[in-house]
Structure formats: structure tokens, C-alpha cells
Structure to design on (302 residues):
């Protein structure tokens, strides 16, 4: 599926990113394995994850190189793409998977908690994508694959920073898809359900929480990789500006925000008429939207 392609993957040393790198290599791609090896909160550094994944690919007969750049730094992020071009001659797909977590309930969230998560999860994706864009434009082809989250699409407790970054990725992807369509470049998002160190912090104290964690642990990271390989391939040239989700053996297509109901008052609205007429009429739509959101998270995966 990816013979002759070059794929740059951020956060590829562990978890979902590693599984993506391994599969893309098996499908024939040369892979740039980016991962600075930081802890879940973004601290520290470790060459091991990126170098081990790259070495495993090479040992299996594939092509790969390790890149240790911090994608939050624009110059460092550009090296991910430079390594692809210098080592393998081109770049065909960018997978923005790098991410950190600093979960804190909203009223306790610090400025540093906010900026560090936005810098890696959102600005990091911007930095790497921006660096790849001149090459994509020149060759009139390319695929951006951004990892969003249902925390952004639906919301989650204690993740205002992460949710904002992940929904921001969707907005960025949609605009990239529109801006780059005329030069044959596509941009899509994936919201993964998989057990990894990014989900290992989910509390498991109550019976309900323990049951949820058990369900999550059954969703292995390798289930995400086939959709990435497809979106990086030429078979997906007509698929762009979409939001997918993968949960074990299930692939979902998410809707985008669109008006679902409207009311017009010829004489104009007042605060009182909104309270007395508009909101009561809209409440059934509120309930339906909440029901859809509740349905997405809890039920058992296929």
C-alpha cells in the first residue's frame, strides 16, 4: 500500500505512534520515527523509544531513521521533515501523533499546564505540517493525518487544555484541507480509542471506572494503524477534510458542527423572549445532542 512512500510520524516511539510506524514500514514506506522520549507530562528526554522503533523496522527489513526533535520548537520540528527528505528523498505523509497530558480540573489549571499542552499537541502539529507544506506543494500531492481526540470532539473532565488542543487540530485540519485541495493535498483527523500511557491515567477506583478501564485495555493500539496506512496511501486521494475514529474493530465517521434548529422572531429577540420561547423549544435538541455524546463513550467496543 505504501511502497515507495516516505511517512513522517511524530510521537512514534511508543504506543499508537509505534504501531503506526511498524505497519507503515511493513506496507513499504520509509519512516521517520520522531519521539524525544519525554514523560507523559512532557518532562525529561530519552533516545530509547525512537531509536528502538527505528531499529526494529530496519531489523525487519524496512527503512527508518530516528528523530528526537521536540515538535513544539519550530526549528526542531522542521528537522522531522528535513530528515525525511535528506535520508529518503521526499516526504509523502505527515502523521501528527505527538502529545502530552497535564490533566487538572479547570479551576486548578495553571498557565503552564495550559501552554505546555497546547504547545505540543496543537502548535507542534502546526510546526511539522508547515515544514512539510512546501514539499507537498511542489510535488502536488501529500497527506496530513492529525490525531485528535474525543476529549476535544465531545469534552472530558479535567482536560480543558487537551480538549482545546485536540479540537483546535480539527479546525486546523479542515482549513488545511480547503487551502491545499487545489494542489492535491489532503488533510484528515483520527480520534483513537486505544490503551496507551496517554489513557493509563484514567482513574479506576469505582466499579464503573474499573469497568471502563477494562474496556479500554481491550482496545489495542495496533487497531489504529491500518486507517493511517490507508490515509497515507494513494488509494485515499479523494478522501479529505474528514474526522474518523477507531475503536478496536470499529471505524466511525464523525459529523461536523452544523445548525440543527433555528427560530426567527420577526420583531427581534429580547432576553426574556429567549428564556420564555427559544430555549424551551430548543431543549429537546439539547437532549438529543447530549444523548449522542453519551452514546459514543461508554458502550463496549466491537
Amino acid at each position: 500500500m505504501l511502497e515507495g512512500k516516505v511517512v513522517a510520524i511524530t510521537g512514534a516511539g511508543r504506543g499508537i505512534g509505534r504501531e503506526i510506524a511498524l505497519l507503515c514500514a511493513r506496507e513499504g514506506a520509509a519512516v521517520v520515527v520522531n519521539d524525544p522520549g519525554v514523560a507523559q507530562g512532557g518532562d525529561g528526554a530519552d533516545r530509547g523509544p525512537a531509536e528502538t522503533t527505528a531499529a526494529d523496522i530496519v531489523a525487519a527489513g524496512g527503512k527508518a531513521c530516528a528523530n528526537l526533535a521536540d515538535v513544539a520548537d519550530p526549528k526542531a520540528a522542521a528537522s522531522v521533515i528535513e530528515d525525511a527528505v535528506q535520508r529518503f528523498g521526499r516526504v509523502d505523509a505527515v502523521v501528527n501523533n505527538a502529545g502530552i497530558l497535564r490533566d487538572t480540573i479547570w479551576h486548578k489549571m495553571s498557565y503552564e499546564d495550559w501552554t505546555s499542552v497546547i504547545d505540543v499537541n496543537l502548535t507542534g502539529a502546526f510546526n511539522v505540517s508547515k515544514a512539510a507544506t512546501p514539499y507537498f506543494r511542489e510535488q502536488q500531492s501529500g497527506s496530513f493525518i492529525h490525531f485528535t481526540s474525543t476529549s476535544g470532539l465531545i469534552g472530558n473532565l479535567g482536560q480543558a487544555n487537551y480538549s482545546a488542543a485536540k479540537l483546535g487540530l480539527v479546525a486546523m485540519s479542515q482549513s488545511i484541507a480547503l487551502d491545499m485541495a487545489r494542489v492535491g493535498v489532503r488533510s484528515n483527523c483520527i480520534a483513537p480509542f486505544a490503551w496507551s500511557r496517554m489513557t493509563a491515567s484514567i482513574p479506576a477506583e469505582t466499579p464503573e471506572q474499573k469497568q471502563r478501564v477494562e474496556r479500554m485495555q481491550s482496545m489495542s493500539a495496533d487497531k489504529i494503524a491500518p486507517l493511517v496506512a490507508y490515509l497515507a496511501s494513494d488509494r485515499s486521494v479523494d478522501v479529505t477534510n474528514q474526522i474518523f475514529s477507531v475503536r478496536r474493530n470499529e471505524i466511525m465517521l464523525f459529523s461536523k458542527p452544523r445548525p440543527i434548529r433555528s427560530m426567527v422572531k420577526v420583531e427581534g429577540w429580547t432576553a426574556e423572549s429567549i428564556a420564555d420561547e427559544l430555549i424551551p423549544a430548543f431543549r429537546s435538541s439539547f437532549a438529543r445532542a447530549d444523548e449522542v455524546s453519551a452514546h459514543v463513550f461508554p458502550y463496549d467496543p466491537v
About this structure: The first strand starts at residue 6 and ends at 10. The beta strands are 6-10, 30-34, 63-67, 93-96, 142-147, 185-193, 243-247, 250-253.
